[in-house]
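Input structure tokens:
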């Protein structure tokens, strides 16, 4: 985005709004702290004297959103809605009423990472794996538990009261995302 286009407070509000918009379109539970914990938003501000449109310095702020999502997370309708709502959120944060002309200052790019090419924590994550991870963590949080990784794909779940139970691969496969 063009540096200085939004105040810190407006940028903070927009970051919360854009995060909520993306998570809703990916099917995350509203307000999910777990889903939010793995959602990143980075802002790169560009010098306004070096932002050109049509070969001339732009007289209005420009924005480019690049969403990088696992393949399969968004269908065509969700993409269309994501772009529309994101554009509206940016213009609202700026205090600019929506018009098609103003909306052209907001570009949205959606990069879908092919299934099997998303990695974190030293391992490959498929979309269904991410969804299961979020659901499993939300259930554990509601129960006051925490997962402890164990060798061989097993996990031990420790409850607040100190009791422990094993959660084998067979049981985890039953979890629906």
């Amino acid at each position: 985005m063009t540096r200085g286009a939004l105040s810190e407070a407006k940028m903070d509000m927009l970051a919360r709004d854009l995060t909520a918009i993306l998570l809703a379109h990916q099917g995350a539970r509203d307000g999910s702290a777990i889903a939010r914990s793995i959602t990143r938003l980075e802002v790169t501000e560009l010098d306004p004297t070096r932002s050109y449109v049509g070969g001339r310095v732009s007289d209005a702020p420009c924005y480019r959103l690049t969403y990088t999502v696992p393949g399969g997370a968004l269908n065509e309708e969700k993409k269309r809605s994501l772009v529309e709502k994101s554009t509206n959120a940016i213009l609202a944060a700026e205090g600019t009423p929506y018009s098609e002309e103003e909306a052209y200052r907001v570009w949205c790019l959606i990069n879908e990472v092919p299934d099997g090419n998303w990695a974190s924590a030293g391992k490959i994550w498929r979309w269904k794996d991410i969804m299961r991870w979020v659901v499993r963590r939300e259930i554990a949080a509601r129960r006051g538990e925490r997962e402890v990784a164990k060798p061989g794909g097993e996990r031990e779940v420790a409850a607040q009261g100190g009791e422990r139970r094993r959660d084998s691969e067979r049981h985890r496969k039953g979890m629906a995302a």
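Helices lie at 8-25, 33-37, 76-94, 100-103, 127-143, 169-172. The first strand starts at residue 52 and ends at 53.
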